[in-house]
Amino acid sequence: xxxxxxxxxxxxxxxxxxxxxxxxxxxxxxxxxxxxxxxxxxxxxxxxxxxxxxxxxxxxxxxxxxxxxxxxxxxxxxxxxxxxxxxxxxxxxxxxxxxxxxxxxxxxxxxxxxxxxxxxxxxxxxxxxxxxxxxxxxxxxxxxxxxxxxxxxxxxxxxxxxxxxxxxx
Length: 169
Prior knowledge:
Layout: E1 12-14, E2 28-35, E3 40-41, E4 47-48, E5 57-62, E6 69-74, H1 77-87, H2 90-94, E7 99-105, E8 120-126, H3 129-140, H4 147-150, E9 162-164
Parallel strand pairs: 1-6, 8-9
Antiparallel strand pairs: 2-5, 2-7, 3-4, 5-6, 7-8
């Protein structure tokens, strides 16, 4: 039996616990892994979670602002479906060495329906985009927003994981 070591620093920082949601707004993350936490998608495409009170799943992401990996909770069904559409696709998993899946947390501002809208936006892009983005961001101190890679962000209607092999910085 192993006891939890409270003094040991966790391998992960968890958004909502160790990192405030407001601190990651419009930040760019590279997705490393997708943990479904036993949430399933049934034959009709419905997302069935194990609990109403826990996230549908977690993305493990890299963020150069801190030195550890980050666990990003997936709290909206559409965000879960979008992540699953990539990780359940064998074509993507075969191409992981040539591609990157990037994500940003960007809730819609100034809309009374904001709490009902999805907040994670995904893009598949060429390998190296994440590092290039932060290299330029750090060197110029420009407030590069996710739109440089994602294009315009969509909160309603037909949601999809975007593909952008030629981001403009």
